[in-house]
Each structure stands twice: as structure tokens, then as C-alpha cells.
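Protocol step 4 of 6: structure prediction from sequence.
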Amino acid sequence: MNWILITMIFALLIPIYEAWQDEDIWQKMLAFASIATKTSVLILVISVLRDDWMIGVVGVIILSVGNASLMLLAQILKRMKNV
């Protein structure tokens, strides 16, 4: 089961590299949204492996609220750039 976690952590490093490399704000926001999604799925996998539903609830909250807040931040940055 450890290879699943190692693979998920490696998949998490791909958008981190993309966010570090790219200068476009929209590409960075997409990379951060991908990081938030992958992190919440990683938390859900860990909660299933540990049989702890409280950790799973935290993963679901991050999954549902995390991407919405990133999209709101992207809209604020877009409007600030237009002003």
C-alpha cells in the first residue's frame, strides 16, 4: 500500500513544478487547483487506509471548498489586473 502513497505524492509534484515554471496567472491557478484536488484525494486515501472517518471529512471539505476559493481568488486577480 505504500507504493500507492508514493505514486500519489509523485503525481502531486507535477503541478508544483508547472506552477513554479509558468508565469501566466491562470496556469498557476490551475496548477494550484490541481494540487488542492490531489491533496484532498491523498487525504481520503489515507483516511480509508487508517479507517478514520474524521480525516475523510477533512478531505471532503478541502475537496469541496478548496477549489472554489481558488477560483474566487483568480477572479479577484483578473479584476485587479483590468483596473
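Step 5 (inspection) to follow. The mean pLDDT is 80.
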